[in-house]
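Tutorial, part two.
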Amino acid sequence: MLLVRYFAGARAAAGVSEEKLEAATLGELEAAITADRPRLSDVLAACSFLVDGVSWRDRAAALPASATIDVLPPFAGG
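Running the prediction step on this input gives:
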């Protein structure tokens, strides 16, 4: 089971701060979390993903079974 944590605009679009889901890849996870949230789909286009604290870009790579996925939209400031 994956723990998905949403931050900032991604949290607002998801309507929750975190949730637990099953998915084998980041691509599967994206499909699952946007199935009934079209606004979240738009936000995810600009988001970065961390898998257990490591930047993850490969949508087809297998995710660790009990990973924590952080969904991070771009942040302003510095």
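Strands lie at 2-6, 18-21, 48-51, 54-55, 68-72. In part three we will examine how such features are distributed along the chain.
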